[in-house]
């Protein structure tokens, strides 16, 4: 199997999954050059102005929508919410498989340092997958729209993470960092599980591993930072501080390296803070309620009671009994 993958990489041909998808997709539906190659000013959402406009629109929509929903009853939207999460879980799985069949041969043939630092590891096919992943980040902004329409709390971590990740993906594409596949593949893996979790719980499934999903997200950022800090260090050591030990240069702009490592570091601390607030400081009953809120699983039932009535409407919280 490994020999087959190495032969694929040597030939420069796409992997079997990419070949299959290309063969079954009609020519009329295949994306044009500007959708598969990063061309600033031509590829959609490739300029700073476009990104700022998109994120500003996102913030206006969610915070403006929250005000519009203030005196309105929440929407249930269970079917649409499940479809949204199913598509993101399945789409993440497909994109992850496509990326792995491109990355694994490079890794096996040339080793880890080459795969994360060499300019030739920034292949045209990987760039196409990076662009698709980038567009996923804008689809994921719909997560917050659902929260607004269902009148759920807009946590800082949620809003910041969604908005900043779209900016991060654009920044890394523009900076041509070869190491970004590590961050993207780990993120896709987590999203396959995370969006399945939301899909399943929205359908009434009782899933016990929410806490471990958060642990997986934190682990993801620890690995991200280990690899990206190494890549950034060896670049800066070689280029700016040659007296320091290093393994050679690492592809990508310095601005992208600094922005990426800085933002990922903030994610790690924010998710650790979320974990501690949700699972460590609360008592058993409060923890269950916090997990339910995080999953968007608070809804009225025959066992619910009204705990607050004000000018914003009636808040119905499902009682969570001890187990």
From TrEMBL:
Please give the InterPro entries that the UniProt record associates with this protein.
ELO_CS (IPR030457), ELO_fam (IPR002076)
Gene Ontology biological process terms from the UniProt entry:
fatty acid elongation, monounsaturated fatty acid; fatty acid elongation, polyunsaturated fatty acid; fatty acid elongation, saturated fatty acid; sphingolipid biosynthetic process; very long-chain fatty acid biosynthetic process
> Can you tell which superkingdom this protein's organism belongs to?
Eukaryota
Membrane association type: Multi-pass membrane protein
Q: What is its EC number?
A: 2.3.1.-
Q: Which reaction does it catalyse?
A: a very-long-chain acyl-CoA + malonyl-CoA + H(+) = a very-long-chain 3-oxoacyl-CoA + CO2 + CoA; an acyl-CoA + malonyl-CoA + H(+) = a 3-oxoacyl-CoA + CO2 + CoA
Name this protein carries in UniProt:
Elongation of fatty acids protein
Q: Which species expresses this protein natively?
A: Naganishia liquefaciens
